[in-house]
Amino acid sequence: MKSSKKATSMKFEIIFENNKSESISAKNIYEAFQKSKEKEIDFMDVKYFRPAKIYRIFKINNVSKKHIANFFRIIAFNLKISNNLPQILEQMYQNSSALSDPLKNYYPLIKELIEHGFTLSEILAKLDILDNLSLLSLRIAEKSEHIKSSKNSKDLSEQILEISENLYEQEEYKNTINNIMIKPKFLMAALLAFIIMIIVFLVPQFSYLFDNDMNLMPDSLKLLLIVSNSIKYNYIYYILGIIILFIAFAILNKNDGYLYVKQRYLLESKNGLYKTRINYRILYYMLSMLRSGSKINEIFDFFSKNFDLIYLRKEFERMTKMLNEGETLHNVLDSSHIFLDDVKTILITGYEAENLAEIIENVLSLYKRDLKRRLDKFVNSIEPIMTIIMGLVIMLILLMVFKPMYDSMTSIIS
């Protein structure tokens, strides 16, 4: 019995505000929280409370944006009926399955912390399962009672539902792009494995036709035979090379310099899908901050510290500095390539008319439909292109492999 419990337990790490850490073994995060209370750990002193790094790397008990979005959606609908959030969380815990809902064991933890006076945004920040910009939107939603006198204020449940829809949009975009690339990647891997098998096992058979005499073989077969022997006797090094290549790409994708160049290229394109999506996100989060009474320079300053894209952080830092130095919004926006032309027009017109929040709110639904249309168009156009590219690659590889065999047969016949 003990061994089964040990097999199902996992590590949780607690990072404190002073950056000291402590590790706890438990079956789930709520049990880890209970054990932390037994150790008299005050949640006020906790910076992050989450599964250990190794579990996050392998996405064990991983909480995606889609799960968080669904969590917010259920809360939003229930808040229309009852304002009792702890009771809503209790019902969600009773009605959810741990297999389909990685957040199931978070519900009693969140419920208990809310009953102890923590806000939902404070809890999700410490549990490290929501990005800073979504946390900002949630904090603004929690203050909706305070800003009800504003014409831009909304019911708490409606604002939480908006957060949910935005998270769904982010996850849907990511999944759509990933799904487009899965088929070509799988086909290329299968084709590569097939070609390697031919080179390693079939090519040497052709060498017997020439009694393994390299001088009698055509040049194309000689080259392929050298490749075949190299793979056969050095396959360990090739496998290690592939692993090192994967690790190098993984490290590169975490490198700020590489990410900056990549994001800059994508965002400085004239009118791409990626740029449209980022502009939609900027408008969405800007609207959230405008509702709370923030000014443009405060919004840009917040973006410079909290946006998840390094290039955007650098750009907003530069634009904030320009605004603080007295530059007009028109000149600031013109100095950057991250905004679409119509978004620049919306921001400048709304700012000068002093009804920016209202204008952004009216155009966001149009942008969402446009983004969906562009995404569908991208998917429909990329699949035929990928098919053509795959066909050309397959023809090239087959030509490289089978031409030496054809040359061999021709040489023997002649």
TrEMBL record:
Domain annotation Type II secretion system protein GspF: ranges: 71-204, 283-402
| Bilayer disposition of the protein | Multi-pass membrane protein
Q: What is its main location?
A: membrane
Q: Please give an example of a GO cellular component term from this record.
A: plasma membrane
Q: By its UniProt entry, which Gene3D superfamilies does this protein fall under?
A: Type II secretion system (T2SS), domain F (1.20.81.30)
- Keyword Transmembrane attached: yes
Pfam families (UniProt xref): T2SSF
Provide this UniProt record's keywords sorted from A to Z. Answer: Cell membrane, Membrane, Transmembrane, Transmembrane helix
**What InterPro entries does the annotation carry?**
GspF/PilC (IPR003004), T2SS_GspF_dom (IPR018076), T2SS_GspF_sf (IPR042094)
Q: Where in the cell is it found?
A: Cell membrane
Segments passing through the bilayer = 186-210, 235-252, 378-402
User: To which protein family does this belong?
Assistant: Belongs to the GSP F family.
Q: What is this protein called?
A: Type II secretion system F family protein
Q: Which organism is it from?
A: Fenollaria massiliensis
Q: What is the lineage of its organism?
A: Bacteria, Bacillati, Bacillota, Clostridia, Eubacteriales
